[in-house]
Amino acid sequence: MKELSRKICYPHPLLLFFLVLISTAGLVFVFANGLVESAAAYILYPLSAYTLTALIFHAVRFFRFSLKEKLNDFSFYQKYRNDPLFRSSISLSVTLAVNTLYLLYKTLLSVLYSSAWFFASALYYLILSLTRLLLLKNAKKTAAEQQKTIRLIGVLLMFLTIVSSAFGYYAIFFDRNLTYPGHMIYTAAAFCFYNLISAVSANLKKGKDQVSSASKKISLASALVSLYSLQSAMLAAFGNDAAFADLMNSITGLAVLLLIILLSVFMICNANKE
Asked: pTM for this structure?
């Protein structure tokens, strides 16, 4: 499974080259001919998104290996590389900062547009930031204290599913007149790609301690909800078929809801076994 994940994240350079050509030429053709809602466009969008993500992975790996020898001279990097707990703490700190910025952004949108959707979304990221803060504060505590924290986070994730399903239901059936500002589409896309890269990267890394395991599950939950949010925003901004948008949002929302419930239950059960 891990080998398959690596092949997906790091396709062969020749394959990646052809994907870049196909995605670029395809998108130019689609936009030049006004085919933004055609079947070809709906195939090209996820293909180009995957190509961009794979390019980022390759670029990160290239710079990481290029700088590795120079970074080995720094004690901070050596500790980051060799200490899983320290690495988890740094990763949590960075992700907490990014989530906090996005939380403030969504809160500002909820005030400017008087939108319950944006407010509920901001509440989701507030809860997500709290779970990461709890993990960060308990990273160096005893195993028993970490278990209590992870159980609490599992419960918070359960609550998170209720919140996410509630604002998803509201967005589908009641907030049809909501106008998405153009900058939000790009911000949501950037945040979604960041979450996807963070989740895949975290799950590829070694680290069997409780903090690392819980952090991976939170990253997956964040990636799932950000994908749903991006889909909803794009369908609202670019789609003309309300019935199709409702169907897609309902299916994706239900899938995200069930997956986050499974993640939270798995987290609680694992904490109880320890």
From this structure: 0.66
